[in-house]
Amino acid sequence: MTFPFRLPAPPDPATLPLPYPARPADGVRLLRGAVYAIPDGSRSLTADVWLPEDAAGPLPVVVFVHGGAWRAGLRDDLGPRFRSWRPGPFARLARAGFAVVCPDYRLSGEAAHPAQRDDLAAVLAWLRARGDELGVDAGRTVLWGESAGGHLAALTALTQPATTISGCVTWYAPTDLPALAEDRPEGTYDARDPRSFEALLLGGAPADRPEAARDASPVAHVGPEAPPFLILHGTDDALIPVRQSVRLAEALRDAGSPVDLCLLTGGGHLWVGLSDEDVEDCHVRTADFARRCTSGATGRA
C-alpha cells in the first residue's frame, strides 16, 4: 500500500478555526493564539487578536511587534512600564475602535534574517484572507513596534506594497545596523562581534555580512512610497542610540515621505526615566497617529 504523503501536510492557517473569544476587559474580546503561519521546519506561529465587543463595520488594524533584541520577548508584552495597566494597552486600543494583532515571529535562535520580516508579511496576508471573519479592514493597517519590534515593524512597512500599510510607529528602534558602531559611544560596540544581538539576527557579525546588515536596515528601504511614520525615542537611551531614529527620520524626509520624529528628553530604553504621564502620552500619541492614518475610506488591500 502506498503511503498517502499528502496527509502529513500542515493545515492552511486561513482555514483553521479561530480561537474561542475570551473577555479580558469590559467591552473587549480576545482571540488568543490564532495560528497565522506554519513555516517549514518550524513551530506554528500564532497571534492574539484584540477586538471591541460591539463593532460596527470593518475595523482598522494595529499590528504590534514585540521587542526583545530579536532573541526573546512575548507577543503581548509592551514592556515593564505597561504591565500594571488595567485595562492593558491593547485593551485600551480595542476600546478605542481598533483591532489589535500581536503576533509571534521566529526569533534569532530559530532563524536568521529575513525570516522575521517574512513572518510579519505572513501576518498581513493572513489578515487579508480572514478579514471578513475577524471583522477587520486589512487595507487600513498600522504597524507598531518597540525596540527590535520597532525595527521589524519599520522594515516590514518599507518592504511591503504601498497599498498594504497605512502607517508605522517605532519606539526606540534600531534602523541602520551598519551605523550602530558609529552611533554608539566609542568602545561600546564591536561590529565584528559574532555574539552581538545583531550578529545573531544576521547569522554573522554585521561587519562580516555587510549586504545582510544593509538589507536588514529600514533606512536602506526608504523611498517615496513609504507610509507615514511616527518615531519616538528617548534622548538618554544607552542601548539603542537616539541617532538611529534620527537617521530614519532624515531618510524619510529626504524621500519626501511624511514623518513625525518625537525625541523625549531624559527618556531611556523601555521608557526608563520618563514619568508615568509621559509614558501614557507615548501610548496616546500612538493611538492618535493610528487613528489619523486609518480614518480614510475603507477598502481591503
Q: What is the total tally of β strands? A: 9
Which sequence of SSEs, written as H and E, runs from N to C?
EEEEHEHHEHEHHHEHEH
- Uncertain runs are 297-301
Sketch the major β-sheet.
9 strands, mixed
Structural class: alpha/beta
Percentage of residues in DSSP E strands: 15-25%
End-to-end separation in angstroms reads 46 Å
| Mean pLDDT across residues | 95
Strand adjacency order, main sheet: 1-2-3-5-4-6-7-8-9
Task: Using the alpha-carbon principal axes, give the shape.
Answer: globular
Structural summary, described in words:
By secondary structure, the protein is an alpha/beta fold. It contains nine helices and nine strands. Strands 1-2-3-5-4-6-7-8-9 form a nine-stranded mixed beta sheet, with helices on both faces. The chain is globular and about 60 Å long.
